[in-house]
Amino acid sequence: MVCEQDLISEGQRMLSKSRWEHSLRTADYAVFMADHYGLPHETVRLAALAHDLAREKPADIIVKWALLDQNTLSEYHLAHPVLLHGFASAWYLREHFALTDDSLLNAVRYHTTGHPDLDASGLIVFAADYMEPGRTHLTDLTRKNLLILSLEELVLAILDAMKLHLVSKGLDLSPDSRELSHRLKKRYNHGL
Ligand SMILES: Nc1ncnc2c1ncn2[C@@H]1O[C@H](COP(=O)(O)OP(=O)(O)O)[C@@H](O)[C@H]1O
Predict the structure, then answer these.
(1) If you classify domain 4-138 with CATH, what class do you get?
(2) Nearest residue CA, atom 17 of ligand 1?
(3) Ranges of the chain with pLDDT below 70
(4) Where are the domains of the chain?
(5) What pLDDT, on the 0 to 100 scale, is given for residue 1?
(6) Among 82, 137, 165, 182, residue to substitute to test ligand 1 (most atoms within 8 Å of Cβ)
(7) Could you report the predicted ipTM of this complex, rounded to two decimals?
(8) What does the DSSP assignment read for 21-81?
(9) Which tens digits make up the pLDDT trace of 116-142?
(10) CA of 129, closest atom in ligand 1
(11) How far, in Å, is the centroid of ligand 1 from the Cα of 26?
(12) How many Cβ atoms from other residues are within 10 Å of residue 9's Cβ?
C-alpha cells in the first residue's frame, strides 16, 4: 500500500492551497462516513486524498493521462474533458505510486460522476467529495438528514440533487451517473 505521507506531499505539490484543503476535508469526511457506515478507513482516506491530483492540469494533459488510463474514451467524455480528471488521477497513481488496488483506483477514477462499478468505498468518496464541510451548497442540517439514509439512498439523493443542479444550467447527468442511479434504485428496490 502507498505511503500516505508520499500522497500528501504530491497533493501539496500538484494542487493549489484551496484545492488541496478541499482534498484534506474530503479525506476527513470520507473517514467520518466510513465510521458512520461501519466500513474500513484506509482505502477511502487514500482515495479521497488523491482524488483531485490531476484536477489543475491543462485539459490536454488530463485527456492524455485519461487515455493512458482507459485506452479509449467515450464521445461523451471527450466532449466533457472536465469529467476526466478522475481517470487522469487514477493513471497518475498507477504510474507514479505503482498502485493496483481496483477499489481505490475506481474510487478516484469515478469520483466526479459516480459509476456502477463503484463499491462501498467508492460510493463514500463520491459522497464525501459532494458533502465535505467546505461545500457551501449544503447546510449542516441537510448533511445530518442525508446521513440518516443508507449509503445507497444517500448516493441516490446526491445524484438527484446533481441532476437538478445540472438541469438548471442546461446540462444533464452523465451516462455513468444515470447508470449508477438506475443500478442503485434496482438494488434498493430489491432490498439488497
Ligand atoms: N454527474 C455529473 N454529470 C455531468 N456533469 C457533471 C457531473 N458532476 C459534475 N459535472 C460537471 O463537471 C464539473 C466539475 O465537477 P467537479 O469536479 O465535481 O467540480 P469541483 O471542481 O467543484 O470539484 C461541474 O461543474 C459540472 O458541470
Answers:
(1) mainly alpha
(2) 112
(3) 1, 190-192
(4) 4-138
(5) 62
(6) 82
(7) 0.91
(8) HHHHHHHHHHHHHHHHTT--SHHHHHHHHHTTTTTTS-HHHHHHHHHHHHSS--HHHHH-G
(9) 999 999 999 999 999 999 999 999 999
(10) 23
(11) 16
(12) 11
Return d(Cα 153, Cα 106) in angstroms, integer: 20
CA-proximal residue: ligand 1, atom 14 (nearest): 82
Residues with CB under 6 A from ligand 1: 82-83, 112-113, 162, 166, 171, 173-174, 177
Residue with cell 498502485: 99
Q: Residue 126: is it exposed, middle or buried by C-beta count within 10 angstroms (0-12/13-18/19+)?
A: buried
C-alpha cell at 158: 446526491
- Residue 186 CA, ligand 1 centroid: distance in Å: 25
Supply the residue whose CA is at minimum distance from atom 16 of ligand 1: 112
Name the pTM for this structure.
0.95
Residues 127 and 37: beta-carbon distance below 8 Å: no
Under DSSP, the state recorded for 138 is S
